[in-house]
Amino acid sequence: GGQTQYPALVTATSQASEVGDEPLFMFQQTQVPVVVAPKRAEAVAWLVQQHHCDVVLCDDGLQHYALARDMEIVVIDAERGLGNEQLLPQGPLRENKQRLTTVDFIVVNGKGTYHCPQTHFDMTLEPDDWLTVGLTTGIAPKQPQTIHAVAGIGNPARFFAALEQQGFQVIAHAFPDHHAFQLSDLAFGDDLPIVMTAKDAVKCASFPLTNGWQVPVVATLSAEFYEQFDRKLAAVCQRKNLITSLIE
After folding, report:
1. How many other C-beta atoms can be found within 10 angstroms of the C-beta atom of residue 14?
2. 3-state DSSP call for residue 148?
3. 3-class DSSP state for residue 64?
4. What pLDDT, in 10s, does the model give residues 92-132?
5. Cα–Cα distance between 108 and 123 in angstroms, integer?
6. What b-and-e string marks burial along 130-163, b requiring 16 or more CB atoms within 10 Å of the CB?
7. Distance of alpha carbon 23 from the chain centroid
8. Nearest Cα to Cα of residue 132 among 120, 124, 123, 141
9. Cα separation of 22 and 130, whole Å?
10. Which of 49, 103, 127, 237 sits 20 to 30 Å CA-CA off 181?
């Protein structure tokens, strides 16, 4: 969703309108080199040449076959699952569900009706301490206060439900995924707190909000997942070092 020249290195001064909201959010969360480009192979080449990266994590890249990969992780929403299991445009899938048998790891996020037939790992997203947005200061709202909940993500209903489960009275405002927020989008005509996701907050940080809050989340997976991931990554690195030694 960005508008800039590519490949583009995300920095502390980057704007979401230039590099996209998710890349900017990832950089702020990790402080590792993040590069965006429509042709992902060009972004990887930039990371290798300019930053000497030896491990590159590509978000939402399963079907980007122009980019070679050593490991594949699929994350499935437990509530929505595979939908009607049909390919686009009849359903939500970009590939046949049998594709799941060829990936390295399957992670199922949250709780729902979906039952993954393959070996998988469960993941939960837990809300962290609220942070301010804009010019806001003070103490975060406490339940059962009424709040405006704003979400421009893939599944806004999950965010609204999480706030309701915490005891808040939620006035929901759903926007399209990656929505380019304007200050007018948040003009609700009252002084109630405005609460948003951390991904949306990167696009609203410059707004003069005095009662704006973001809700970061922490992903939790089992120790077994990390152990298997580390073993797989170590094996990949060992193989590549061997190939490099043979070439040299």
Report:
1. 21
2. strand
3. coil
4. 999 999 999 999 999 999 989 999 999 999 999 988 999 99
5. 6
6. bebbbebeeeebeeeeebbbbbbbeebebbbebb
7. 9
8. 141
9. 19
10. 127
Residue 134 CA to residue 18 CA, distance in Å, equals: 20
- Predicted TM-score (pTM) of this structure: 0.86
Nearest-5° angle of CA 174, CA 177, CA 182?
70
Contacts of 175 by beta carbon, 8 Å cutoff, 6+ apart: 150, 151, 152, 156, 181, 185
Per-chain mean pLDDT for the chain: 93
Which among 22, 217, 27, 190 is positioned nearest to 130, based on CA atoms?
217
pLDDT digits (tens, 9 = 90+) for 152-201: 998 899 899 999 999 999 999 999 999 999 999 999 999 999 999 999 99
Please name the residue ranges forming H helices in 3-112.
Answer: 16-19, 21-30, 40-51
pLDDT digits (tens, 9 = 90+) for 42-88: 999 999 999 999 899 998 889 999 999 999 999 999 999 999 999 99
Query: Tokens for 61?
Result: 């890249």
The DSSP secondary structure of 86-103, one letter per residue, reads PBTTTSSBSS-GGGGGGS
Vertex 119 angle, CA 225 and 110, to 5°:
70
What Rg value do the Cα atoms of the chain yield, rounded? 20
Q: Are 146 and 168 in contact (CB under 8 A)?
A: yes
The predicted pLDDT at position 185 comes to 98
Structure tokens at 93: 């899938």
Q: Determine how many CB atoms are found less than 10 A away from the CB of residue 196.
A: 27
